[in-house]
Design goal:
11-stranded mixed beta sheet, single chain, mainly beta, 1 helix, 5-stranded antiparallel beta sheet
Length: 251
């Protein structure tokens, strides 16, 4: 027999689901109501190749004051004078994803300058993000294959803006139930580094009991933050990243 508390609980869950669906299906605020840059929050990310500065991708996502993603054909974003393409993509639960994208934009004066034009014709500075200095992956010295019974060392030089090393592992695991070997990707570890240096991973750290290290990926990454218009809503950000990635097979 159902109690009144059970009914109330199920009703509350049902109402929450309805609210979620209504919020997901609702359209963003009308472009005509965005009258000033202070009505928007912006999250801007740039990926730039570390071997070719013109090989890049710029993504800008806008939000209104209620925190909902915002986008409209009448609102334009320019990256170093190049118009970003406005895209609307469908996601789960009938929600939509609004994005402004530009690719292969040549940096100007070692930076990417973003400007926005609202539907009312007003133009504003949006963000300034420094470009990344290019470097060569040949400056990363390492062995592509390595034994499991020895420490592993890798060294690098003249990688300029590279400041973070991400390394992840793929390990082989044998399940007790079926005695079948499977591969598991483990979470990345992070190490703050400079343009030149070296790193040694002790063999005792290769894997845990029951695991066998198979592949290790080293991602030499350059990350920088940009400057956004201070009139944007709180939480606005801009950043750029690029990386050299090397993989090592262990036997």
């Amino acid at each position: 027999m159902k109690t009144s508390s059970d009914v109330k609980t199920k009703l509350s869950i049902f109402l929450c689901c309805i609210c979620f669906l209504l919020n997901s299906c609702s359209e963003p605020v009308s472009a005509s109501k965005i009258e000033d840059i202070s009505d928007l929050k912006a999250e801007i990310e740039i990926y730039q190749s570390l071997t070719d500065e013109n090989d890049n991708s710029v993504s800008a996502i806008l939000y209104d004051k209620k925190g909902k993603e915002f986008g409209n054909d009448s609102v334009q974003i320019l990256v170093n004078g190049k118009k970003a393409e406005y895209k609307v993509m469908q996601q789960l639960y009938y929600s939509k994803y609004y994005d402004y994208r530009a690719k292969n934009v040549p940096p100007q004066n070692n930076s990417y300058e973003l400007h926005i034009q609202l539907s009312n014709g007003k133009k504003f500075f949006l963000a300034s993000i420094p470009s990344l200095k290019t470097s060569s992956s040949k400056n990363i010295i390492y062995s592509k294959e390595a034994p499991l019974n020895q420490d592993y060392s890798i060294r690098w030089s003249d990688l300029h803006d590279v400041n973070v090393l991400y390394f992840s592992k793929s390990v082989k695991v044998k399940t007790k139930e079926s005695n079948i070997e499977t591969f598991i990707e483990q979470a990345e570890d992070t190490l703050k580094i400079g343009p030149s240096g070296n790193y040694t991973l002790k063999k005792e750290k290769f894997s845990k009991p029951g695991e066998l290290l198979s592949i290790m990926s080293f991602k030499f990454t350059a990350e920088k933050a940009g400057k956004v218009n201070p009139k944007l809503l709180k939480g606005s950000s801009s950043k750029i990243s690029g990386y050299h990635e090397e993989r090592v097979n262990f036997k």
